[in-house]
Amino acid sequence: MSASGKKAICLYFQVHQPFRLKRYRFFDLGNDHYYYDDFSNESIMRKVAEKCYIPANNVIMELIQKYKGKFKITFSLSGLAINQFRLYAPEVLDSFRRLAETGMVEFLAETNSHSLVSLRSRSEFERQVTKHKEMLKEFLGVDATSFRNTELIYSDLIGSWVADMGFKSILTEGAKHVLGWKSPNYLYCNSINPRLKVLLRNFVLSDDIAFRFSNRDWDAWPLTADKYASWINKLAPKSELLNIFLDYETFGEHNWKETGIFDFLYHMPGAVLRKTPFRFMTPTEISDILQPVSAISIPSPISWADEERDITAWLGNELQVAALDKLYSLAGKVNKCEDDQIKKDWEYLQSSDHFYYMATKFFSDGVVHAYFNPYETPYDAFMNYMNVLSDFEIRLRKYFPDTAEQDQIFKLGSQLIEKDIIIEKQATEIEKLTKKVAKIKPVKKSAGRPTKTKTIKAKKTTPLKSAKAARK
Fold this sequence. Notes:
7-stranded beta/alpha barrel
């Protein structure tokens, strides 16, 4: 039992939709600067809004009103999802704003683009997180005090950056390979900066809802609220914190209404409050009330994706690595650019989904990777993305042409070549003079054997080799 004597359950939902790219061919480069499939983006958003976001938000609001302070919940809305709500489903954004006004919902900060920037650049990471915090303030009226990184990606280093930005807690995966004998059902802290509290996902309880709820072959099917509460109660003696983290689309989209998923959502909080000692809390509340049992050491990045719980869903093959490296090689120029459309495209192109589509995984994970994937193969996803990125780079060059740098390199190269030509001429002259000297000089005689004067040849240097050597 914690020092406070309280046991907490944290129910968190991820909300994200990417701006999907249209088919962009090589011949479009330099001609077409609009990259998005508006029809797909709007139709998918409208579909998910009607099947999931609106009905689920209505259930959450009803539960908040019913339990009067005893039911609290946590969301993360990516900046791209907020922008899609504004474009295609403003009523969804309104419903989230009403939830925020209840004071029973915490909204977490994250990277604005739902990007993989934490794996590449601290400065760009901090810029995106700041932008996302501003969006939450503008559209939901909330100040974010806790954090979750894209797809729960976390490492000791990333956690220390988040701590330095002033956040109280961070969410990540309770991965077996980092926990070892430890349990995810306690509060931990960052190993570099212990001020940051770390909430670890209980993947069994989470996946019981997310992946097994509709599976009629599952030995626990059908899953009822009372059955779920009984499992939670069994964990009570050796647990003080249960973190149930899900995609919000679990309700109504991944599991259709006909499966009874909304009935489960409606009855589960009451069953937990009646049958267990756990109380619903938000991450910031948990970080204020519970004490961490120890630091958790996670030197290499983990996530909640796939069976490995690592980052191979986005960086598991050479295509993905090459695309991400190319993308962030442009960061310096983008940050100097004042063009609003360039800035917007930069945000949309960073979404982790573009790299997820390039995954070449098979077996059980392959099915998950295929969900909402607009491409037939990972190679199609790669080629389409790189064509778009190439056009984006062409547009950047118009604002920041490399001519000055190239002119300087050209001038230096020209100077080197001129010097090489002069050296070659001088070497030739030296060789001619040496031969003349050799003819004029008398031949020495020694022990009856003639001895020739040694001619010294100047080493020839070609202009190309000399220029290369100078550059090295």
